[in-house]
Amino acid sequence: MVPATIDLAAAEIELVPQVAREQRLKKALAAHLREHPVDYIIFDCPPSLGLLTINALVAASEILIPIQCEYYALEGVTQLMRTIQLVREELNPELDLSTILLTMFDARTKLSAQVGEQVRQHFPEQTLVTLIPRSVRLSEAPSYGTTILGYDPQSVGAKAYVKAAGEIARRGAEEPVRSARRGWPQ
């Protein structure tokens, strides 16, 4: 793992005047990977769609989208799908939405179930069966500088993430799901 630091905030500003600014991460990774190959690279992007996120989309081959089971998350997915389509058309035609993970699921509310149902209608093959529940323990872990597995591995949230990881691993062992090119309404 290579965590970001506060210095990354300045990168967005520095990228603006650069030539081929959307390709910078992809080119840097290609050069690095020739010397130091790895099996996986995971970019944990902010929900904003700035140049850093665009660089990650250009460098990536697959996307996993965590979607909170809340109303405004659906609006965000619509915008993200437009952006993904633009990136496919202009910068990375191989970009594939392979996985959607429903998070902050609250079984006590109809809204969580409705959001999950709507996402599954549009992306039936990409959406994991596993739901990540809303959990105080999940919210607390980052404030202690650790993951949920380091903070409380027996919590409901930790067990859900382990289950989701297993589901993703099983999918990876099979033929990859291809692809949600037009799954979400524009």
From TrEMBL:
Keywords: Hydrolase. Residues 1-96 form the AAA domain. One of its GO terms (molecular function) is hydrolase activity. The keyword Oxidoreductase does not apply. SUPFAM superfamilies: P-loop containing nucleoside triphosphate hydrolases. Its EC number is 3.6.-.-. Pfam families: AAA_31. It is an enzyme of class 3 (hydrolase). Gene3D superfamilies: P-loop containing nucleotide triphosphate hydrolases. PANTHER family: P-LOOP CONTAINING NUCLEOSIDE TRIPHOSPHATE HYDROLASE, PARA FAMILY PROTEIN CT_582. This is Sporulation initiation inhibitor protein Soj. It comes from bioreactor metagenome. The lineage of its organism: unclassified sequences, metagenomes, ecological metagenomes. The gene is soj_63.
